[in-house]
Amino acid sequence: MTGSSGWGRLGIVFRGLWGGGDGRVDGTQGPVRVAVRRLAWPMAMEMVAESVFAVVDVFWVARLGVAAIAAVGLGEAAMSFVYAFALGLSIATSAIAARQVGASGRVDAAAVPAGQAISLAILLSVAIGLPACLLAEHVLMGIGADAATAAYGAPFARILFAGNLSVILMFICGAALRATGEARVPMRALWMANLLNIGLAPLMIFGIGGWQGFGVAGAAIATVASRGIGVAYQLQHLARARHGICLGWKHLLPVPAMMSRILRIAWTGALQMLVASTSAIGLYAIAARSGNVALAGCTIALRASQFVLMPALGVARAAAVLVGQNLGAGKPDRAASAVRFTAIVNLTVFGAMGAILFAAAHVVATAMSPDPQVVAEGARAMRIVACAFPFYAAGTCLQGAFNGAGDTGTPAWTNFACFWLLQVPLAWVLAVPAKMGTLGLYVGVTIGFIVLAACSGTLFLRGRWKAHAI
Predict the structure, then answer these.
(1) Is residue 379 part of a domain?
(2) The model's pTM
(3) Which of 219, 300, 381, 415: CA 20 to 30 A from 66?
(4) Does the pLDDT at position 1 exceed 70?
(5) Residue 291 counted as domain residue
(6) What is the extent of the structural domain holding 361?
(7) Could you tell me if residue 208 is left (phi over 0), alpha (psi between -120 and 50 degrees) or otherwise beta?
């Protein structure tokens, strides 16, 4: 009987994620726990899909050799600025749209901010993509590639730059849908794009029959095409009357006041990702001082940790949507309750995940590298960093309160203080002057995440975000 009911609950979850019908959640009504569960599951699955997307290209391109891996890595690094702007625009879109939906009780209130964000995305993609395409080799050399690697990787990077609109729109369209309480469509779109990329990437890279394919550039073609199809799926749902948003061409016509509101929130939203990504580069630079084994061990540990923690960001997105909707509806206490509940969920779930990774660190490291020295270094790193999992996961939900309220500046400056003024300097002091090596690096990373959670919690409890005007 127990097993049967367990499978029944699993079936309900599966149908909830993939089944038809209206999946929209009104976060202003009913039990908070139910709203969190219905939003968080698909958002967490969406973040899993995002992490899989990042692995596929490297998996196939690795068969072309070290130069191809380097080209993909550098190309993705160059795209980090695009991802930062996309994230900033998506946070702004979600905050404004969710608040307007909550205030009016109408889903179509999301149409204007969604349309204006899409128009900004088109302008931004041209402003970034055109010069980046023309200067692709110089861009790669600017982030550390030698002349030969830059020349080899330029076609890959050029295609990614040319297709950057698919990345930005994937973020924005998903944010608009989530703001209305519809979390399943963005999740389906990204998994659809993932499956297409998995099938298309080897074909574009290696060819078929007598056709030799496009080599490393084929990975970029597959990525852009797959994301483009995912975006088309999202746009179709945004335009449908069935989902209530009814996005039309008229909503893309410039509304300067709305564009200004979006940009005011978006720039500090983008800063959040830029601070995080640049601090990661600083940590890798510290690890590199200890040699290639240390750098490889650090890399696999942080990649494994990022993969495990990605669903935590999905739960944080659910918190942000609920904050936006409830602040719009004039229910700040309900918004705070939603954040507290998601933080407890993340603290519990990812505390357990951290314990599992701590116990299985050697097994995971062995699966990621055949080198015994790298395995030992990676396992040690995973065990230390895993101790910070519950704090990082809870902290993301607490920061979701600020992002959902449109106060993107608070998490941006908190990240800057905790990452660049504490985590990176502390990691360097422990690793180099204190002569702890990479052990000091990992301890510094862990302390940085714990302090970030504490700072976010303190600012959350002050409650100023409840009165933030956008």
Answers:
(1) yes
(2) 0.86
(3) 381
(4) no
(5) yes
(6) 271-470
(7) beta
Same domain, 241 and 339: no
422 DSSP assignment: I
Q: What is the pLDDT of residues 412-429, one digit of tens each?
A: 999 999 999 999 999 999
**Residues 280 and 246 occupy one common structural domain:** no
Structure tokens at 287: 């690890």
Number of domains in the chain: 2
- Regarding whether 171 and 293 lie in a shared domain, the answer is no
Could you tell me if residue 307 is inside a domain?
yes
> 384: number of CA atoms within 13 Å, CB side?
20
pLDDT score recorded for residue 6: 47
What DSSP designation does 418 have?
A: I
d(CA 152, CA 134): 15
Q: What are phi and psi of 25, to 5 degrees?
A: -110, 125
What value does the mean pLDDT take over residues 442-453? Answer: 95
- Using CA atoms, how far apart are residues 60 and 218, in angstroms rounded to an integer? 10
Choose one of 213, 228, 254: the last residue of a domain.
Answer: 254
Per residue, the 3-state secondary structure of 249-290, as one string, reads HHHHCCCHHHHHHHHHHHHHHHHHHHHHHHHHHHHHHHHHCC
pLDDT of 2: 45
Kindly give, in sequence order, each residue whose CB lies less than 8 Å from that of residue 92, ignoring residues fewer than 6 positions away: 117, 261, 262, 263, 264, 265, 266, 269, 406, 408
Amino acid making up residue 447: I
Distances (CA, A) of 27 to 16, 17, 30: 16, 17, 8
- Predicted pLDDT at 242: 65
**Which among 254, 283, 315 is the end of a domain?**
254
14 part of a folded domain? no
Q: How far is CA 151 from the centre of its chain?
A: 29
Residues 152, 292, single domain; the answer is no
Q: Do 213 and 325 share a domain, yes or no?
A: no
pLDDT digits (tens, 9 = 90+) for 19-71: 554 568 888 898 999 999 999 999 988 888 887 876 777 778 877 876 777 77
Q: How far apart are CA 317 and CA 465, in angstroms?
A: 16
Q: Is the same domain home to 73 and 172?
A: yes
Q: What is the mean pLDDT of residues 265-274?
A: 93
Give which of 464, 331, 455 is closest to 407, Cα–Cα: 464
Does residue 249 sit in the same domain as residue 291? Answer: no
For the chain, give the number of residues: 470
